[in-house]
Amino acid sequence: MEVLIEVCRSMGWCWCWPKKRLEDGYDLEHFLNLRLPIFWVMGPPGCGKTTIATALAKASNYRLIGENKPTGQKRNCQKRLAWKSDSSIYERRQIAACPNEIVLNLLKEIFYLTCDESEGYILDGFPLDLRQAKQFQFEICKVYIIIYPTLPVDAFLKRFFENGGSREDREKVRVNHIECSQACQEVYRRYEQKTLKCVTIYETEILMNSLLCDLERFFGYHFQSYAQQEEQV
């Protein structure tokens, strides 16, 4: 039976079949039984992931879990990562070397500690690549929806320079942007039916209103409009 569950979990069929106990000590059975929606917001650097994830969290009251990386640092599992939640229960951590296993264990801890107080989760900057996406679904649960903001390289470089980026770093950040885009594209091809792809060259209000309309039209999620969010600030 355990083998069957693991096979089904790897194929994304096992939301209702939780693992009883994890090696890190977090029993996620209760979290899985709640069936809370989980959104991934992935994309290359500078594409507006955090802006979208923050606005989406405000519109939905879902718990925002973010990734904070030092400027100019390549996106891979061996670099420093800081996962944070807006919950007072889970404080931000700095990790010197962060393979997928550590990132996933931190997420398991957040889910374990906060699931009773959460309506859903939005993961900003996750996954980094297809391997991380598959490992999340194998070890934790299925993702509900993936938001995939993209930005053409020329538009990204223009934004990079406007924000004070150095011209000496132009080629490095350009290559990094392309590599990250390719990694995200692999995730998109694997989970296309769950993904909303958008180009972030428009103003935030226009982009978010379009995104929220698409979430309602294609997936049935009715969230607060961006204008309503601004009125409450």
TrEMBL record:
Alphabetically, the GO molecular function entries are: ATP binding; nucleobase-containing compound kinase activity
Q: Which InterPro entries match?
A: Adenylat/UMP-CMP_kin (IPR000850), P-loop_NTPase (IPR027417)
Keyword Flavoprotein assigned to the entry: answer is no
Asked if the keyword Disulfide bond belongs to this entry, the reply reads: no
An example GO biological process term is:
nucleobase-containing compound metabolic process
Superkingdom = Eukaryota
Question: Which keywords belong to this entry?
Answer: Kinase, Nucleotide-binding, Transferase
Q: Which PANTHER family match?
A: NUCLEOTIDE KINASE
Q: Which family does it belong to?
A: Belongs to the adenylate kinase family.
Query: What name goes with this protein?
Result: Adenylate kinase
**Species of provenance:** Popillia japonica
